Amino acid sequence: MLSDMTEYFAVFVDHFEKQLSVLSSSSQEISEKLDLGATIPFDLTRTLAVSLEKSLVAANDMIATEEQRIVSFLDDFVSDEVSDKISEARGKVSDIFGRGTTYNQSQEVRLFYTDVKRLLEGALTTHLSERSKAFGRFLVGEARGVPRNALAEVHTTLTSAEQNIKAAAMARISGERDSFERHSSALAEDLSGVIALCSSFLEPIVKPEAIESSAHEALPQTTWTNDAPSYEWIEQIRLAATTTVKRFSLRNSDSGWSFNRIFPASLLTGCMCIALIDPYLSKPHQFRNLKEFLLLAADVAKPKQILIVTSGTWTEGNSANTNIVKQIGEDLFRNFGTNLSVEVDPAIHDRYIVCDHGVLFKLGRGLDIYKPATGLASHRQGNRRVRQTEIDVFAVDEWVKRHEQDVRVLTTQPS
Q1: With pLDDT > 70 as the criterion, what percentage of the chain qualifies?
Q2: Are 297 and 376 contained in the same domain?
Q3: CATH number of 279's domain
Q4: Which backbone phi and psi does 230 adopt, to 5 degrees?
Q5: Which residues pair with 353 in a beta bridge?
Q6: 345, 407: one domain
Q7: For residue 186, what are the CA distances in angstroms to 177, 179, 265?
Q8: Treating both helix axes as pointing N-terminal to C-terminal, what angle do 284-301 and 320-336 enclose, rounded to 10 degrees?
Q9: Fewest Cβ atoms closer than 10 Å to its Cβ: which of 21, 97, 277, 317?
């Protein structure tokens, strides 16, 4: 019974050693990636092997002890109760030997030894059952303790390595900081000497205060207002743009419809101001589309102004919309020199884009043409599935006459 239990425990130890080997390999990779070197110990292989060896030694000691205890109990396992019953049976046999027949004596002797055998067998079975259960509980406890002890050793090793890394990093940083301060002090002294020598040749052209003030004025604030909008030029172009240039027909679930295809450079180049009229610009995916359109328009046309006209949904909820557009406006001005402004007009309903050089995009769904996208499609417009809609492009006669070649190219392309 002990051998069987020990064999099962050995199988467990074998599996644990395999896992230990994997963990040790991982620790070695971590040590190499961190480039700890020999100055900072991080040998989990040795640490875990020592921990496992301690558990195995304890288990082997317990096995040897149990074997000796069982052999010893085989010699003196008889309890007082069993001893009394054996003495009682022996007395019966003695009485028969003194006064009974040979048959009765033989019968009583057989009964005596049968009783003794039963008593001995029961006592031995009970003892071995209890001791085997106790030994089994010991092995289970050791099996549970091996991973726990190993993890405790790993935690101790990692804590020590963390402290060593921090100490080494602080020492390295401290040394570099001292070196930087020495070099910067020396450089400052050298520059002071150069400035002193050149001061007679230099005269201040612009006061530092003026430079600082102009730097603050370089990035304009993105503006938005709830006042009645004033964009007469938009209405004029909307009424005058009557010549059809192109119609884009987007079929449900098609892909390949990026903003570069819908708003080609040939239609945007040359304008100084672009107006986007869309009453629904509040949801995250609508803001994603808005940002992508603004970046495209600014990059292609380099307009001086982009105006967004939207409805009251713009100010619903928190101020996240205005904060996002403010950041986009600063990026547009910094990278393209384009000013961005927002006007709120509760009365608008149609969706369209107007360019001041005479091109009008009539948007059936506005910029909200894409279905929910995940994975690669979240970052690539060409991979997104579109909703069914139509986008018509109109232009004023003067623009059509100046761009006859572009119009012919557009009309021959598939829609």
Answers
A1: 71
A2: yes
A3: 3.30.870.30
A4: -130, 100
A5: 276, 361
A6: yes
A7: 14, 11, 54
A8: 20
A9: 317
Greater confidence, 398 or 19?
398
Which one-letter DSSP state was computed for residue 371? Answer: P
| 405 and 283 in a common domain | yes
Question: Looking at the structure, do residues 83 and 168 belong to the same domain, yes or no?
Answer: yes
Identify whether 284 is part of a domain.
yes
CA proximity to 403, closest of 305, 299, 303, 264: 264
- Is the domain of 228 the same as that of 174? no
| Backbone dihedral angles phi then psi of residue 105, each to the nearest 5 degrees | -65, -45
Helix (H/G/I), strand (E/B), else coil: 226: coil
**How far apart, in whole angstroms, are the C-alpha atoms of residue 80 and residue 83?**
5
Q: Is the pTM higher than 0.70?
A: no
User: Domain limits at 166?
Assistant: 2-178
Instruction: For the beta carbon of residue 92, count every other beta carbon within 10 angstroms.
Output: 14
Q: Are residues 167 and 276 in the same domain?
A: no
CA–CA gap between residue 312 and residue 300 (Å, rounded): 30
| CB of 266 closer than 8 Å to CB of 296 | no
200 within a domain of the structure (yes/no): no
The per-residue pLDDT for 332 is 93
193 inside domain: no
CB 318 within 8 A of CB 199: no
How far apart are the C-alpha atoms of 65 and 231, rounded to whole Å? Answer: 98
In a domain? residue 46: yes
Cβ-proximal residues to 63 (8 Å cutoff; 6+ apart), any chain = 2, 6
Which amino acid would we find at residue 28? Answer: Q
Contacts of 50 (CB under 8 A, 6+ apart): 153
Residues 30 and 122 in one domain: yes
| 132: pLDDT strictly greater than 50 | yes
Tell whether 126 and 233 lie within a shared domain: no
pLDDT digits (tens, 9 = 90+) for 159-207: 777 777 777 777 777 777 778 878 888 887 777 777 777 765 554 443 4
Which of 90, 118, 119 is CA-nearest to residue 105? 90
Q: Per residue in 275-316, pLDDT tens?
A: 999 998 888 888 889 999 999 999 999 999 999 999 877 766
Q: How confident is residue 87, by pLDDT bands cut at 50, 70 and 90?
A: confident
Laid out side by side, the sheet with 352-355 consists of 223-225, 339-344, 305-310, 273-277, 352-355, 359-363, 389-395, 243-250
The set of residues, in sequence order, having a beta carbon less than 8 Å from that of 154 and lying 6+ positions away, is: 23, 44, 47, 48
Q: Which of 178, 198, 232 is the last residue of a domain?
A: 178
